[in-house]
Specification:
InterPro entries: AAA+_ATPase, ABC_transporter-like_ATP-bd, P-loop_NTPase. It comes from Flavilitoribacter nigricans (strain ATCC 23147 / DSM 23189 / NBRC 102662 / NCIMB 1420 / SS-2). The chain is α/β, with parallel strands linked by helices. The chain is built from eight helices and ten strands. The chain has a single domain, classed as P-loop containing nucleotide triphosphate hydrolases (Rossmann fold), CATH 3.40.50. Strands 6-7-8-3-9-10 form a six-stranded mixed beta sheet, with helices on both faces. It has a four-stranded antiparallel beta sheet with strand order 2-1-4-5. Strand 1 (about 5-15) and strand 2 form a beta hairpin. The protein starts with a strand and ends with a helix.
């Protein structure tokens, strides 16, 4: 079994406040791993440590074989990341954003050109290539942001609340993109506070007050908590 993310007692404190409290887990290659919890549960803080954006206070973790403490720059070269807030440049056109991120990832001009045409065709947004990103509907922006997070074929893509604020149809379309990436062997690590999205994941970790309160497959969690839905599982966990 190949694990591409491993965390052992990973902890983050801000003064006397413990945002992430000694969490331990592993993520398999090609897995869609859901990191769920209410707002403020510690999901984003944990993700920032795993992506090399924040140093742990204690514990250790490796991502794509690299240590989060000593090799954060190597981690960044092997992952894709889509932040909670829209992560593209709204004052650039769609095509300019694609070109910019292709260069950031170190892709050649010929590769960027061929991948651009492929991306525009897959997303069916070729007609808006020259439009400013700011003019696009939110759902289109989110799909484009995910496509660019995967543009350089990273081993792992981290998605922080990727479907916040979009309509149910767009959420479904977004998850179809996630499935397609996982089918290609990309590991997906996704945070969300939408409990129904847990059903789309291979395994789910639920954070409560900085701790991993439960970790299993969606069906395993529902069986363990004698629940009919992931919402019910979360309610029972929150009540203790």
């Amino acid at each position: 079994m190949e694990y591409v993310i491993q965390a052992d007692q990973l902890t983050k404190k801000f003064g006397s406040f413990t945002a992430v409290n000694a969490i331990s887990f592993s993520v398999k290659k090609g897995e869609i791993f859901g990191f769920l919890g209410a707002n403020g549960a510690g999901k984003t803080t944990a993700m920032r440590m795993l992506t090399g954006l924040s140093q742990p206070t204690a514990g250790q973790a490796s991502v794509a074989g690299y240590d989060v403490r000593t090799q954060p720059e190597q981690i960044k070269r092997h992952i894709g990341y889509m932040s909670q807030k829209f992560s593209l440049y709204e004052d650039l056109t769609v095509g300019e954003n694609i070109w910019f991120f292709g260069n950031i990832y170190g892709l050649s001009r010929s590769v960027i050109k061929s991948k651009t045409e492929q991306l525009l065709q897959e997303l069916q947004i070729g007609s808006v290539k020259k439009q400013l990103v700011a003019s696009l509907p939110l759902g289109w922006k989110q799909r484009l942001a995910f496509a660019l997070a995967s543009f350089h074929n990273p081993e792992i893509v981290f998605l922080d609340e990727p479907t916040g604020g979009v309509d149910p149809i767009t959420r479904r379309e977004f998850w179809e993109m996630i499935y397609a990436a996982a089918d290609r062997g990309t590991t997906i690590f996704v945070t969300t506070h939408y409990m129904d999205e847990a059903e789309y994941c291979d395994r789910v970790s639920i954070m409560v007050d900085g701790n991993i309160a439960a970790l299993d497959t969606p069906s395993g969690l529902k069986d363990s908590f004698e629940a009919r839905s992931m919402d019910e599982v979360f309610v029972k966990l929150a009540r203790g």
